[in-house]
Amino acid sequence: MSVTIIVGAQFGDEGKGKIVDYISTQMDMVVRFQGGDNAGHTVSNEKGSFKLHIVPCGIFKSDCKALAGTGMVVNPDELLKELNELKDKGVSIDNFFISSRAVILMPYHIELDTLSEASGRTGIGTTKRGIGYAYADKARRNALRFEDLLDIDYCIKRITTILPTINAELVAKGGKNTSENELISKLRYWAKVLKNRIVEPVSFVNNALARGERLLFEGQLGAMKDIDLGIYPYVTSSNPVAAYAAVSGGFPISNISEIIGVLKVLSSTVGTGPFPTEIHGSEAELLRGTGENIDDEFGARTGRARRVGWLDLPVIKYATTINGFTSLAICKIDKLDDCPELKVCVAYKLNGKTIDYMPITRELEKVEPVYITVPGWMTSTRSIRSFDELPENAKKYIELIETATKVPVKYIGIGPARSELIIR
Ligand code: GDP
Ligand code: IMO
Ligand code: MG
Hints:
By secondary structure, the protein is of the alpha/beta class. The protein folds into 3 domains: 3-98 and 200-260, Adenylosuccinate Synthetase, subunit A, domain 1 (Adenylosuccinate Synthetase, Chain A, domain 1, 3-Layer(aba) Sandwich); 103-195, Adenylosuccinate Synthetase, subunit A, domain 2; 264-409, Adenylosuccinate Synthetase, Chain A, domain 3 (Alpha-Beta Complex), CATH 3.90.170. Helix content is 31%, strand content 22%. The chain has helices spanning 16-23, 76-88, 107-119, 131-139, 152-172, 180-194, 201-210, 243-249, 281-288, 313-323, 361-364, 392-405, and strands spanning 3-8, 29-32, 41-45, 48-52, 65-68, 73-74, 96-99, 103-104, 198-199, 215-222, 256-264, 267-269, 307-309, 311-312, 327-331, 341-350, 353-355, 368-375, 409-413, 421-423. The chain is globular. The protein starts with a strand and ends with a strand.
């Protein structure tokens, strides 16, 4: 029982990077289990400040293996860029590996995603990183995987079979044909520079478990953006819920000992779709910040201003139900230090009636949040390092979440840095 899973309990950007960075100091392996470089996980530690997109946030512990897992769709150019940036900042990347079963996200996936978004027909507001198209190719068995790079002749045969379908789609969307020769050169290059990092993931993970190693599975995005259980169609194309860690990792679920849900004191979302507790106007601007500080609410991947909203307990309760959290991590308590009072959504009303379930997307767009107002604490929490020292109203705010979810809050973020964390 040595698998810990860390996932987002809201709409993404909850502070997973910060919590993974801290907990990975106790781990032997960290695995990113889904998504691709649509993720932006911010880490601030003794090595500097980083926004990681593909590489797991456990990379900073030099004796911790970091695996880009099977459930991911990985753009090799972005991966190489990220690895070089880490190396340039003095971070060892010797322990970075990639699952042979992970999908290679191709330049044409990005092109297709960009053309779709530009057409205005999807209205999702994706990160334009090609994520949906890479997963679509995986589902229709039209994708290349990293294992294919280990046999370049086979790889070339596959791409020449696949490319006519892709080119027809590109042209139909108003794009240009992908050059086969250029793509083959890229594949040869990726094979050369990445082959030593490609591992057979099932034995890699299960052998580590058999040796008694501690493994951490890092999710991307959050519960509400899960393709099956989130606000479809305004979701990503993978499963950010904890259960998917076992599918992606290829290990028996009986190994899971801890599932940590990360949430932040105010919700945020990027892109379109229902967001019941959204705050607008100058109040939102104040809470979002200007983008100058590392912890302002601007996309770590796209730089887009995030939509911000009050704490939404129905969302967190729903995330708890579908993930089975054993503990919670709450980030950004310090961001509320100057708020005299706070609104918390405790239920939704649909057509005038209080509901006790998460409604389908079209109904979620119509719900009326039921708020309570609680007093703030109007004092800085940044230097506090124990739960007992927190102001009474901050404790009450945290306890409100514990009462709603029946899950203990074990980690409390009071600043962006690794050290700015209260462990309970
Ligand atoms: P992720 O995608 O879940 O890893 O989250 P992001 O990195 O996209 O967004 C979380 C933001 O909150 C980043 O700017 C972090 O630096 C910041 N952050 C995380 N925890 C805390 C905290 O406890 N206090 C403050 N002030 N900022 C935090
Ligand atoms: P982390 O891991 C916030 C959003 C996009 C869009 C939807 C689908 O840092 O929390 P996609 O590019 O995945 O096809 O876009 O999902 N989105 C994110 N929002 N944080 C992220 O990652 C996101 N990754 C995707 O804005 O609404
Ligand atoms: Mg993020």
